[in-house]
Specification:
Number of domains: 2
Strand order of the largest sheet: 12-10-9-8-6-7-13
Order of helices and strands: HEHEHEHEEHEHEHEHEEHHEEHE
CATH topology of the largest domain: Rossmann fold
Shape: globular
Structural class: alpha/beta
Distance between the termini: 37 Å
CATH architecture of the largest domain: 3-Layer(aba) Sandwich
Helix content: 25-40%
Largest sheet: 7 strands, mixed
Strand content: 15-25%
Length: 376
């Protein structure tokens, strides 16, 4: 991990000297905030060098898609490159063919590098990467494919899930909930949830309390908000659940709505979601936008790309050691656990003093301190 971090830092410094852009294009203005950059731009030559293929759900989901695209926009704006996003046809029912068609359209429109968000892109991305060998593909929440034009980037979500579970129990909550996206087949969401249980168990042991946890993938297969999900979450709150970890893109909207109506609390995911609802007590975050930016910088030259992906046979795994996962401290509102205590635990994770099992476990078993109720 430390080797990867060192490589990323070297790339960041070296590539900052590379001149980018072309007089043929209406280059986006450089910006410090993704919110200041338009989601869509017009290129005067009709070509768009940097492409983003959305995962299921909405582009502006205030979570995974939006967080990744924010990184794409920031990179493009500050590198003077044209950019465009593509949403596969079919919405939450999109197929591998739909995703491939979106990638092909991006390449036909001049993309030199394509950022694909979400594990569901895998089959289509592999097909596209084999066909368009001169195009580089960045697979966020993905895996290595043994091809020289594919960078698979994944995260140790179990670590920030652990921190969120620990924080919730230290804050005094003992009746927790987890609603996950992907129906239990999404490895990233699995790791978030399993880490959440482990963190809750550790905090419960430290405080000498017992925790009950509702745990479900029931309405998360499409990562969408739904009346059914909101009804389930409302029922949990009405029956005593105090805080729910909303782990799945637009699912947050349904859970936050239920929390608002039932005086409950929410833990956000992927990005700091405290700006979206006063019900949010913290968020389990990972550096999806930052990872996209770093990979895009690496794609600027062949040498830096080769350094970034190595032989292409191993995923680039980012976690606490790379400052890539954690909880937001700028908007910290917890009173039962301080920022200093959080930073100490984060350092302990980096040092290996606190270990978190990162297995892809869709249905964690009860522990000594956490009684699980798997809702199907």
């Amino acid at each position: 991990m430390k080797k990867i971090l060192a490589l990323l830092l070297v790339l960041a410094m070296a590539l900052s000297l590379v001149a980018c852009g072309s007089s043929k294009k209406e280059e986006p203005a450089a910006a410090d905030s993704a919110d200041a950059i338009a989601d869509e731009m017009t290129s005067s030559d009709g070509k768009y060098e940097v492409a983003f293929i959305t995962d299921v759900g909405q582009l502006k989901d205030k979570s995974f898609n939006q967080g990744t695209y924010d990184g794409v926009k920031l990179y493009a704006a500050n590198a003077g490159k044209s950019y465009k996003y593509y949403q596969p046809a079919g919405g939450d029912q999109s197929t591998d063919d739909d995703r491939y068609d979106a990638m092909k359209l991006a390449v036909d429109n001049g993309a030199k590098v394509v950022v694909c968000a979400g594990f569901m892109q895998g089959t289509a991305l592999e097909k596209a990467a084999k066909e368009f060998t001169d195009v580089k593909f960045i697979f966020i929440d993905g895996w290595a494919m043994g091809m020289p034009n594919v960078a698979g980037v994944c995260f140790q979500e179990e670590q920030c899930g652990y921190l969120a579970g620990y924080a919730a129990v230290m804050e005094g909550y003992t009746k927790l909930g987890f609603c996950g996206g992907g129906g239990g087949t999404n490895a990233a969401c699995d790791r978030y949830g399993y880490g959440f249980v482990q963190g809750a168990d550790a905090a419960a042991a430290a405080k000498g309390v017992k925790v009950e946890m509702n745990y479900s993938w029931l309405y998360g297969s499409s990562f969408q908000a739904s009346n059914e999900l909101q009804t389930m979450a409302a029922g949990w709150y009405q029956n005593g659940t105090e805080v729910i970890f909303a782990c799945g893109g637009s699912m947050f909207q349904s859970i936050a709505a239920a929390a608002s109506a039932e005086d409950g609390k929410v833990i956000g995911v992927d990005v700091d979601q405290s700006f979206e609802s006063p019900t949010v007590i913290t968020s389990a975050m990972k550096g999806i936008g930052e990872a996209a930016q770093q990979a895009l910088k690496a794609a600027e030259t062949e040498d830096s790309w080769k350094t970034f992906i190595g032989d292409g046979n191993a995923s680039i795994v980012l976690g606490a050691a790379q400052n890539a996962v954690g909880l937001p401290t700028a908007t910290w509102s917890l009173t039962g656990w301080t920022v200093d205590q959080y930073n100490t635990m984060l350092s302990d994770i980096v040092a290996g003093k606190v270990t978190v099992d990162g297995s892809d476990v869709p249905e964690p078993a009860s522990t000594a301190n956490v009684t699980m109720n798997i809702v199907k």
